[in-house]
Amino acid sequence: MIIKAVIGVLCAAVVLAIGIVIGHFGINNSSAPSWLNDVAKDVDESLIEKFLAEVDTIHIQENLRELTDVPHMATTPGDEKTVQTMLRRWQDADTGLDDAWREEYNVYLSFPDPNNPNKVTVVDAANTVQHSIREREKAYTSDQDDPEVVQPYAAYSPAGHAKGKLVYANQGKPSDYEQLSQTLNLTGTIAITRYGGAGRGAKAINAAPYGVVGVLVYTDPLDINDGLMSDTNETYPHSWYMPPSGVERGSFNRDFGDLLTPYLAAKEETYRIPPENIVGIPPIPIQPIGFEDAYILICALGGDAAPSEWQGAFNCTYNYGGPGFKPTSEFNNSDVKMDIYNKEVIKNSANVMGVIRGSVEPDRYVIYGNHRDSWVHGAIDPSSGTSVMLEITRVLGRMVKQGIWRPRRSIIFGSWGAEEFGLIGSAEYTEVTSYNTEQYVHLIRNVYMFVVQVNAPGESSTSVYEAWKLHSNRTSPTHGVIPRLGYLTGAGSDYAAFVHYLGISSIDMSYTYDRSKTNARIYPAYHTAYDTFDYASKYIDPGFVSHQAVARTAGNILIRLADSLLLPFNCSDYAEILEDYLNTAVTLYQQQLEAHKISIGKCKTATDVFGDAGEYCNTQHTGRNIMPLKVRRINDQLMLLDRAFLDPLAFPDKYAFRHVIWTSSSAGKATFPGLADAFAQAESSGLDSDWDKVHYHLSVVSQAIEGAASTLADVI
Ligand SMILES: [Zn+2]
Predict the structure, then answer these.
(1) Rounded mean pLDDT of the chain?
(2) In this structure, are residues 125 and 383 in contact, taking their beta carbons and an 8 Å threshold?
(3) Which of 15, 28, 88, 426 has the fewest Cβ atoms surrounding its Cβ within 10 A?
(4) CA of 63 to the centre of ligand 1 (A)
(5) Residue 104 β-bridge partners
(6) Where's the PA domain (predicted)?
(7) Which residues pair with 102 in a beta bridge?
(8) Which positions are annotated as active-site residues?
């Protein structure tokens, strides 16, 4: 999550006639036409060396200082200030891009009411307030005291008033409420939950069927602070840990993109669904609070002790709640009361777009993006990524302005708006793109070779590759021990619409902390008022050397995607993942599938065929003496491979998910997601109709793999 960049490769459907039959490239042939050298040109290694040398820590540091000057939540004056910063940089005469502009969308957002803040209180039978939950985080520096720091809240939580006895519901998963309800009647209760385990909004969605009327959520020090709690010497400003009053804000919707314009770009004149038809948002009020208040509430709860997996770092036993507090506590017989005043509003949110036009294949695009909006100052999320993107565009922009370089393919830069509310800017962009220009989708597989070249932060002797392999690796049957790549299976960031909806090969890149040294679920200031320049420069990346390593790595990949004669994708690596998925499916499911007369044989055959096709494709990929039209054809095959895995009808219950290999899954198994989810459902219900769905998803994925393999073979 730290220091992010999202890159995608995208191609227009229009094939330009650049490759008119010219026979083999005759680079040294003096009678060859002058454009032939350009068409045959491959990536220039000396240019990459020059790029790597020019990426500068001080520039990145000053970018971050400027971007985090004021809070810049989507559509606020601070957000507009960052729009202007991006435009000024990308329109600069000496270091800017060919062109840069803003694109506005009218999007549905949710804010607390600054004049009527959300309140959570403990009240006795006479409605006398016994305890008030802190409404703002404690300020340690003037940053946190800025009046533009938004009150912690749950975006898209409905406004409303709820009052009831408190219960502790662990992480708010369906199984947590199920377990609680076995001994308690949850009707009319307020549930307190901790972050983790279930999505933010799901904690309320899962609660409502049990009659719960309101939900609180907090971050347990066990999950974020390695158990530490004191701000006198343990947490920020003394370390990177979350102070007791810190609150993770967030969007509590399930689906991504603008909620009123599903599958349509949210322009002024666009059709909008009625707000009451929105699905996947909390049906009951929910509010996030700090662990200093959660500590007071949880340690006063009565009832039976919760099981050991539910216990956190507080020095008391976490009880279920009677419901309500212990008779011996000062809150005996008291209720928890929630008064939530969030308001939904349609506002203008801007993406800032910039381009460097390609010289040879301007109709092929490499997209590099990062969101711009934050919850508060957002030094790490997202401004670390924007600081890096601005440094990459400064170095590349200058080369373009000086006439030293122009990429083979076009590069599009995107500074997305309103990501924090649900990946809105990037999703709206893909909705316009897919409908207006029929562009196509993809995933980048072979990034290893590029990180060999970049030094690990602060070191001259170790590469990012070696550091990566040391800290996170896997054993590949082909390559031996190699760095581990994660899969883009969920909708964690702006890659979602590109991968899942359009099928564009994508990378989501971050430089993160050593997870062997901390159990922190994410960096502890995430979405709090403490994610500031001071925090980033003191505790995340002093000297900005990690930022520099990310800029070098991302820029190196970007240049190679834009300039390589043949796209640097490796089909065999994709085949390896499919084979892994298949082996897991065989181990976990084959026996039961056979018991239900469902054969996995077709899937095995398809995976084998894909493996062969991948190897064949790689052999086509070597050598440089290739006709331009063949180059174009091979690149089409590589670029469009992920698109072959899209099935628009396979997941009717999952908004905008169409990629049968990477779709989100709730089963938690490293195998084909549709199959895994259908199997989990059939196993628990035992219904024939659910086993039919298992059979269906097995056929969907087998057919997709077979189809994808056929796109890698020779045309006829
Ligand atoms: Zn975020």
Answers:
(1) 90
(2) no
(3) 28
(4) 19
(5) 350
(6) 163-251
(7) 352
(8) 419
